[in-house]
Amino acid sequence: MKLDKKKAIVEELHEKFSKSKIVILTDYKGLDVAAVSELRKKLNEVNVEFKVVKNTLLVRASEDTEVALIKDDFKGPSAVAMSYDDPVAPAKVMTEFAGGNDKFEIKIGVMNGKRIDVKAIKALSSLPSREVLLAQVLSAMNGVPTAFVRVLNAVPQKLLYALQAIKEQKEAA
């Protein structure tokens, strides 16, 4: 590969590393082309970019980015998955894929300037999607005013029941 092409790859990766919310480093050694294509297809469906790049280029591209935290892990055949909006989506897809393929290994990741290990990535994959979490928050926010209105409504209602009981008691007497 020519030097100009390598520089272009490093610049492109550096820009992508700077923009990404999560970067997950994987080892794909032993996977055939069909399996890697299947993984790429699943990742593309959730707007995640998957790149197979030489480790030396990964190290250079990670300089001055959060991804530099894991540059020591760029060993062996490496591929990176980068998500620019939803950090849960790549974790879900890759964890599911790793469960079905013994040769695919999730090494480590970086999210919000912190290293995340395989255990944390698997925990992240068990979270519901962003849309589901937003729906749950809205549901909780909607439930509080509704319950408050019910409580406020119950006070005059109980007063009316008490007055009705007093009226019936006086009429009976």
Question: Would you write up a description of this structure?
Answer:
Helix 4 crosses helix 5. The protein has 173 residues and is an alpha+beta fold. The protein is elongated. Strand 4 and strand 5 form a beta hairpin. The longest helix is centred in the last third of the chain and has 43 residues. Strands 2-3-1-4-5 form a five-stranded antiparallel sheet. Helix content is 59%, strand content 16%. The protein has two domains: 125 residues, 2-Layer Sandwich (Alpha-Beta Plaits), CATH 3.30.70.1730; 46 residues. GO terms for molecular function: large ribosomal subunit rRNA binding; structural constituent of ribosome. InterPro entries: Ribosomal_uL10, Ribosomal_uL10-like_sf, Ribosomal_uL10_bac, Ribosomal_uL10_bac_type, Ribosomal_uL10_CS_bac.
Keywords, separated by commas or semicolons:
173 residues, alpha+beta, 2 domains, five-stranded antiparallel β-sheet, elongated
What share of the residues lie within helices?
Answer: 55-70%
Would you tell me the overall average pLDDT? 85
CATH superfamily of the largest domain: Ribosomal protein L10, N-terminal RNA-binding domain
The low-confidence runs, each spanning 5 or more residues with pLDDT under 50, are: none
- Largest sheet data: 5 strands, antiparallel
Q: Number of DSSP helices?
A: 6
Keywords: Ribonucleoprotein, Ribosomal protein, RNA-binding, rRNA-binding
Function: Forms part of the ribosomal stalk, playing a central role in the interaction of the ribosome with GTP-bound translation factors.
Protein name: Large ribosomal subunit protein uL10
GO biological process, one term: translation
